[in-house]
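Entry 14. Ran structure prediction on the chain below.
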Amino acid sequence: MKKNGYICLRNAVTYRQAGFTLIELMVALVIGLIIILGAGQLFLMGFQTFRQIELLSNKQAALTFATETLIRDIRRASDINFSSRELTVQFPNNGDMAACGPGENVIRVYRLSNSAVSATEGWALTMGQDCDSTPTSGAFEPLVTGFADGGFGRNEAETDEDNGIWVLEFSLMNNRDNPEETDDFSFLAVNRSQAVTTP
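Output, structure tokens:
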């Protein structure tokens, strides 16, 4: 039938609309879910690796800073004493403390904090200093954290005080979630004046 110059089909062929079947959609959803789960697992593994690397770098920084500070003070000390987990060093003031005069001695005491800084940071190695007298308990400031409970001491068997050889030991937290897991380190510090003057 022709109307206004156009052909009109009364029984036009209906075209089937193209699309996805339910099965195709379910397969696509399962494949997408597998990809998302794999990406999530990779993200979690990366996050855990980052936390372990962060803990390791913090531990290395704490260990490096603490050992360098203690070795420097032990090397130049005129008097060293280690008792009840406190290291006391005395040395002439060479501009280390502005409050001390040039002829006075600086007395520094190193010990662990009385309690943990936090559950994840552990105990702190603290230092107090004063001129010609032992520092008061309020004068102690934290140097580094990450120590286990009781994690600062000396190796009695290897320390030779008469010859100025000190073997100090650190126990650092290995796992933030489990403070009982520790990494133990020992390092040797030699007092130069005792080592040179000892026959």
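Residues 26 and 32 are 10 Å apart (CA to CA). Will compare against last week's run tomorrow.
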